From TrEMBL:
Record's bilayer topology term: Multi-pass membrane protein
Protein name (Swiss-Prot/TrEMBL): ABC transporter permease
Major subcellular location class: membrane
PANTHER family, per the entry: ABC TRANSPORTER PERMEASE YTRF, MEMBRANE COMPONENT OF TRANSPORTER-RELATED
Length: 854
């Protein structure tokens, strides 16, 4: 049996190639994502380990550090003297570093990464742990001098002697490049600007006596943990102390979010490839078994029992899985290499020669590849075991032609009802987490129901889709339609591969379009200002930008928006950490805020706070109540609830309660904060075009901010939604690739299966051109059938997703009919492309040899 299995496998290896490609793709994404993330993690672990001080003394961690308030936590620089006196301290360096500053050259062009990596301005000192070394010029020796990292200098064409402008939180200042520093470790993609320590403290922090941290070096024989303990005893509990290992771990944790995004996106592609590949493999083995009915019957007649036949088919599947996994692992290594090179284009210079292939990667690759093929082949193997020895004497097959679909109908109906119930529960639930859980359950169940019941839909749907074929193409059209109807199981399984991908596309497209429409409506409803001034990444900007805008000729009312982290101690006993938006009193003239109790004057009055009515009701808060509030730096206040809002739109990300306070309250309890948005109305007698031109001219030295009107803001939201659509289209592309493989495989095996039939058709007068057309039409109707099922299922999913979004204020439903039409037309193209090779192969058959084929 083993010899027979191996010979059978190698005899049909050409027919198994396309199924192996599905395994290769799924394994490649799994292996590539693991290799890439492991390589990046290892590289940055080494970077953080080699650059972290023995002990770092910094500001005590507090809530709200992720809120873009623009404040820079600091500690007194004089603390270095106390630290230096602690037993076991060999050296102490004052750090004054600020991330996300903006640096521009003489042409006002940004000098720094544009891909999201930070531009870091910091003080220069020589240390064994520095990630850079001075390679040309000299160190900064006073105000107006700076070093620049070599990667940024090369990319932006900056040389020693050039003048740069640094836009820091306290304000902007000019520096002359006096030296170039080259990375000695991996460049994480950031741009580095070095100043001397007094200049950094004054210009970056706005305080010559402040520091962002102290880097402490341990003396000989003193370990990090011991030194940390001694420093803690000396300094007390007002500071955050981390050893080198703890600092490296904290830095790696911050990087983890970036890595997780890439890893999960790639694993998402792997999941789609696995799911779609299962249908391809099931179909391939089912057809191979159908074509080998007499062969399997002969084995049974010679004494092979059912278990041996089943094992024979499963061994073939395992061989396919091993081959596909091996090739997939190799492809995954290539994919990881490509990602590393792509990161280099984005400024993150990873060393491809140090690629990490951990023990988990090959294990995961073979588990996925072998597991998928084994599971997919299990049902066909069971069907093969049922072949009777008498089948060797008859021209029989076990492909399921004519077998009743009763079991499928019952199972499909039960699962469909359960899925519909879950989606209905998702639509009527008032709790977001419950609704999202029911959505996930409903998606899985309805997908399973559609796959199970798909063959039941073949005959009625394809009769409609191919109904015009006989009239348009005559007898060829009629035969192509009947070929697609001949084996509903096979047609359903072939179309299912395309259906899965298009269902995902349909659902995510509806979700994306609905989110965009909801934000457009919210912008129309709430934004009343002529213009908004904000940065591209919504980061806070220096105060001098606000002052520039306020001084623009033609600018009337200017209302500032600033985010303030805070923690509320509520009457129900809960402590909620959130963020409030702070505004100037003229908010009503630049935005439309709806209130259920009182209004803007009461919400923004000094010592007051406004909150969303639902949040207030949930925590038993009423207007006039006094709520204890804690701000960063352990500043505490008692704020009076002055008004309740009914915003109705999307909530501020990461915030609860849609809290608002006045700018006076923000300045008092969170001093030094920076504005995130400026709402600007034109003065009387000034037209919008005139004001826009004046704003653009005034802000020309500040490339980090843009002037936007309502239409521009909508376009910005659409661009952000487009990122989701690009992911959708990438998933669609992958699903189509595997679906095309499935259709090609099915048609190719079908041509082999119908060799004698094709020979007879050619013998009675069917031309080669007509034969190719028949196979193409069969392919098109199968592809369109899959598209109709997928889009129908995807639209149902999209409607359910929109109900979940509605609970977060995104109430608009939008269906992208253009995308739907494009997908249907695209499925026709897919069908035509998939039929090219099988149709050509069929048309080249020798007529007499085909008639004599067994």
């Amino acid at each position: 049996m083993l010899k027979a299995t191996l010979r059978s496998f190698f005899a049909h290896k050409g027919r198994l190639v396309l199924s192996a490609l599905a395994v290769v793709l799924s394994v490649a994404f799994v292996a590539g994502s693991l290799i890439f993330s492991d390589t990046v993690s290892r590289t940055f672990d080494r970077l953080f380990a080699s650059t972290s001080a023995d002990v770092t003394v910094g500001p005590k961690e507090s809530f709200g550090e992720s809120v873009p308030s623009g404040t820079v936590p600091t500690i007194p620089a004089q603390l270095a003297e106390r630290v230096r006196a602690v037993d076991g301290v060999a050296d102490v360096q004052v750090d004054a570093a600020v991330e996300n500053v903006t640096v521009v050259d003489a042409r006002r062009e940004p000098v720094g990464p544009t891909t999201g990596a930070p531009t870091i301005a910091t003080n220069w000192y020589v240390s064994d742990r520095s990630p850079v070394e001075l390679t040309s010029g000299h160190a900064p020796r006073g105000p107006g001098q700076a070093l620049l990292d070599a990667d940024t200098a090369d990319e932006k064409g900056v040389a020693i002697g050039d003048t740069l402008t640094v836009l820091a939180p306290p304000g902007s200042f000019d520096v002359r490049v006096v030296g170039i520093a080259t990375f000695t470790t991996t460049n994480p993609g950031a741009a580095l600007v070095f100043l001397d320590t007094p200049t950094a403290q004054r210009e970056l922090l706005g305080d010559p006596d402040a520091a962002t941290a102290l880097s402490v070096t341990a003396g000989p024989g003193v370990d990090d943990a011991t030194l940390k303990q001694r420093l803690g005893a000396e300094l007390g509990g007002g500071y955050e102390l981390r050893t080198a290992a703890e600092q490296a771990e904290s830095s790696a944790a911050q990087l983890g979010g970036f890595l997780d995004v890439i890893k999960y996106v790639m694993l998402g592609f792997a999941g789609v490839a696995v799911l779609v590949g299962v249908f391809l493999i099931v179909n391939t083995f089912s057809m191979l078994i159908a074509q080998r009915t007499r062969e399997l019957g002969l084995l049974r007649a010679l004494g092979a029992d059912r278990a041996q036949v089943r094992r024979s088919v499963l061994v073939e599947a395992l061989l396919l899985g091993v081959v596909g996994s091996t090739l997939g692992l190799a492809t995954g290594i290539g994919l990881a290499f490509g990602l590393i090179e792509l990161m280099a284009l984005a400024g993150m210079n990873l060393d491809a020669t140090e690629m990490v292939i951990g023990p988990v990667t090959p294990v995961a690759a073979y588990v996925v590849g072998v597991g998928v093929t084994f599971v997919a082949a299990y049902l066909p193997a069971g069907r093969a075991a049922k072949v009777s020895p008498m089948a060797a004497l008859a021209d029989a097959e076990v492909a399921g032609v004519g077998r009743p679909l009763t079991v499928r109908a019952v199972v499909g109906a039960v699962v469909a009802v359960a899925g519909a119930a879950a989606l209905t529960g998702c639509a009527v639930s008032a709790d977001t987490s419950t609704s999202a859980s029911l959505l996930g359950l409903g998606v899985v169940l309805t997908l399973v129901a559609t796959v199970v019941a798909g063959p039941l839909l073949v005959r009625p749907v394809i009769r409609v889709l191919g109904g015009a074929f006989p009239a348009l193409f005559g007898s060829v059209g009629r035969m192509s339609q009947r070929n697609a109807l001949r084996n509903p199981r096979r047609t359903g399984a072939t179309a299912a591969a395309l259906m899965v991908g298009l269902a995902l596309v349909g659902g995510l497209s509806v979700a994306s379009a609905s989110m965009t429409a909801s934000f457009d409506k919210e912008i129309d409803r709430t934004l009343g200002a002529d213009f908004m001034v904000q940065s591209a990444n919504f980061r806070p900007f220096p105060r001098e930008i606000t002052e520039r805008v306020q001084d623009v000729d033609g600018a009337g009312l200017v209302v500032r928006q600033r985010f303030v982290p805070l923690a509320l101690s509520l009457p129900d006993g809960k402590r909620v950490e959130s963020a409030a938006a702070a505004y100037d009193p003229g908010l009503d003239r630049v935005a439309r805020v709806e209130y259920t109790v009182n209004g803007t004057a009461e919400a923004l009055a000094p010592g007051h706070i406004g909150m969303d009515q639902e949040f207030a009701a949930d925590h038993r808060v009423r207007v006039g109540d006094t709520v204890p509030v804690e701000f960063p730096g352990e500043r505490k206040a008692e704020l009076i609830v002055g008004a309740l809002t009914d915003l109705g739109g999307p909530s501020t990300p990461g915030a609860q309660g849609n809290l608002v306070v006045g700018m006076a309250t923000a300045d008092r309890y969170v001093p030094g904060g920076q504005d995130s948005v400026l709402f600007v109305n034109a003065a009387d007698g000034t037209g919008p075009d005139t004001l826009r031109a004046a704003l653009n001219e005034a802000l020309d030295p500040y490339p980090q901010v843009q002037v936007r009107d309502q239409a521009d803001y909508k376009e910005l939201v659409r661009e952000q939604m487009a990122v989701l659509l690009y992911l959708v289209y990438a998933l669609l592309g992958l699903a189509i690739v595997i679906a095309v493989l499935g259709v090609v495989n099915t048609l190719a095996l079908s041509v082999v299966e119908r060799t004698r039939e094709i020979g007879l058709l050619r013998a009675i007068g069917l031309s080669r051109r007509q034969l190719r057309r028949m196979i193409r039409l069969e392919s098109v109707v199968i592809a369109v059938f899959g598209a109709v099922l997928g889009l129908g299922l995807g639209l149902v999913w999209g409607l359910a997703v929109q109900q979940v979004l509605a609970l977060e204020g995104m109430t608009e439903l939008a269906i992208p009919w253009g995308t739907v039409l494009a997908v249907v037309l695209g499925s026709v193209v897919v069908g035509l492309a998939a039929a090219l090779v099988p149709a050509l192969r069929a048309s080249r058959m020798n007529v007499l040899a085909a008639i004599a084929h067994e």
